[in-house]
Amino acid sequence: MSFRYKHEENAYSGGPYLGKFEDKGTGNIRAYDIAASFKISETWAYGITREIINGKPSVEINTIGLTAADTEREKREYDFSGSRTNFSLYRDRGLWNYGIAYSAPAGLDYDLKSTVNAVSTKYKGALDLPRTLALGINHIWAGAVSASIYFDIVKTFWSDMSFVDPVTLEKQNYKDSVSYHLGIENDLSSTLQLRYGMAFIPSYEISSVESAYLTGGFGYYVTSNMYVDMGYAYGRRNYLETWQRFNSSLDGRIQESIHMFNVSLDWRI
Known about the structure:
It is a single chain. By secondary structure, the protein is an all-beta fold. It has one domain: Beta Barrel (Porin), CATH 2.40.160. 0% of the residues lie in helices and 77% in strands. It contains no helices and 17 strands. The strands form two sheets. The protein has a 15-stranded antiparallel beta sheet that branches.
């Protein structure tokens, strides 16, 4: 998966504009899955997946004031790797199906290079990506246009990721969140599927603020055992906030956007 992220906070204090805080991230994250599924009855099946994750994203953290003296630019370059195990239980009832999935925490080791005003410092660390618990419902519509509708509710245990930032030494206390996902898959042919959907995902910092996502993609059966999937997601949120920074109370307008592009190849034995 490749992504491009931007978070911009325009800051005001009692009316006058003070400047802005800007985070920009780019990079690629790769995952390699080994999965197995087993039928335990006519309608029930369970699965287990071992997922290996690595990536080299970079983040620019800029404080842009009204003068050069009030401006600071930092670049963080990460190199991380880790793994986790996912479990699922699924019931196939024909036109209506449902399942539950659990992802264990992903233990990541990372190297971090932080560059501020041309001075670089290197760090090493470890953290756990949060657990997730998902409940999904699927309905197959056998009308004039063959389609499947998917609805998922996902709880993400962001509080698992409470940690101290290695650069700022600030403690990050994230909040658990529940997100909602709706998707539709149309069979254009026996080998080609078109998918599109939307999701509402709360912030792990401010639970009352949600990002809205639109998604699209397609899947193609190269052979009966090989499947290629391509997808794109765009997320955005805008909101107003009052916060404390540099011992001052600031009012801000926050704009945030993210673009994600994913390509996967599945091979079934």
